[in-house]
Amino acid sequence: MTKIRLATIWFAGCAGCHMSFLDMDEWLFELTKHVDIVFSPALADPKEYPDNVDVCLIEGAIGNEEHLELIQEIRQKTKIVASLGDCAVTSNVSGLRNKYGSAEPVLERTYFELADLQPQLPYDKEGVLPKLLDRVYPIHEVVPVDLFIPGCPPEADRIIAAIEPLLQNQQPVMAGRKMIKFG
Amino acid sequence: MSVKTLTINGELISARAGDTILQAAKDNGIYIPTLCHLEGLSDIGACRMCMVEVEGINKLLSACVTEVAEGMVVATNTEKLKEYRRMNMELIFAEGNHTCAVCVANSNCELQDTAVAVGMEHTRFSYRFPDRGVDLSHPQFGIDRNRCILCTRCVRVCDEIEGAHVWDIANRGEEAEIVSGLNQPWGEVDACTACGKCVNACPTGAISYKGSSVAVMQRDRGRIPFLAAAREKQQWTR
Ligand code: SF4
Ligand code: SF4
Ligand code: SF4
Whose CA is nearest to atom 8 of ligand 3? Predict the structure, then answer.
């Protein structure tokens, strides 16, 4: 049996969803029987997103220019794109700044008002850090998403219940409190 | 007491004349989701979650404000209703700012529960991210309008049960918001008796006890129905 090519990616999020992923504990051994992890900030770290990925779990919202570019590439190269966690599904805490209408007030506060030494923007030097977008987007507002796994973070059991059917080429049933409660 | 016989989801049931479809359904163990309805308060059909189909009427009716009638044929859970309810729920979420992860009501929220009940695992509408205010001027309670769904349960409980009428809705459309007194800070409204009824009535994390942190807000959900039953039916104990 050919193994499923699994990727995970971490955009504007706190790593909590990846923590929860690792929290699947011994089920990770079960998982590795069925999948090759081909790209993941937590488990495998090639610099380029590979071709022909079967499933990509996405933590975090689209918050900067790099995310915006990479998500397009991911969508093109991936069969099933899954939003993992509230930031990916709703923009959640990452999107709290959206009510200001632009990234400016947040940058101003963080890098000038609260700066002790050398107030300056982190991307004064072009190309070092990607620029923040003026609005943080849930993944499905940018590219089509095939599966939504809400939760902040989604508990390990919920992640297992969501991806186990995928290993059998089936669509999981995302319904009921255990599977879809936000927060 | 006159009785009406009607059908809900194919089941023949009888209800008291004057009862709403919602009441009749509830008495017969049929679940219809609601948000703005609270036992003991008047019904206004604001949230549209309880929409049902009634044979011979080509628009959807709110079960909480539609009286039962003899021979009525009601459906509460058709595919069409399920889709509309979910869409309604998505619009409610997209309209305000619901960041459950950092909300006082997380895991104790009727809005969140109802979202689960209608199967909403994401919102297809773009979030509006409105910039609404937070008012912490009251010594005991606070209101975060970002989480308000304009159900007016606070307005009605304060007016109908407490008799203080602190709350109202100001403005229209997307500008609509709950205001206290004459659009004053809550803490400056002399009419407020600090009874806490609005705190117990609010289905979301909008009105809360001051000092509540994430997911710790607990309400006494039975208190308002109890007070109403005490007044109307002289039932003095719970
Ligand atoms: S009010 Fe309810 S739905 Fe809104 S953020 Fe709080 S817990 Fe979530
Ligand atoms: S605490 Fe009581 S009197 Fe004050 S606003 Fe709430 S319901 Fe009205
Ligand atoms: S503050 Fe609470 S009770 Fe009042 S309208 Fe908003 S959600 Fe409803």
Answer: B151
